[in-house]
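ok trying this again, last paste got cut off
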Amino acid sequence: MHTVVERELELKLVLSPEQSVPVPARLTYRTADPYAVHITFHIGSEHPVDWAFARELLVEGVFRPSGHGDVRIWPTKVDERSVILIALTSPDGDALLEAPAAQVAAWLERTLRAVPPGTEAERFGIDDVLAELLAAAPQREDAQDGEA
């Protein structure tokens, strides 16, 4: 059985140091895809904008700057509030988003309870699939003394 951990929240799209606009968003974590987190932005268009990146990147970004390239995350304070800044880069443009740190951290805690760090690979059942494949593999009749 797979679990989905979701959280609706309002982010701020930072346009300049003095101006930002609210952006409704949904954080989603699926135990069927245990390494990734998904953010869906509802920007008033017909189709929402989806981003996916490593959960580990977001976990680290709550405490210290993390990420390179397309997704960078770091904690900071804005007007005495703890926030997480998320910088996204794509061929379509760049965006700097501000998320409330307490809400993101609480949601992340729920994902970490659902799939503790270091246990993600167990969700794929790779060892079970490999054992099945090896058990079903035909034995070569010309093998002698373990030689094939």
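PB: full thing came through this time. The chain has a mean pLDDT of 87.
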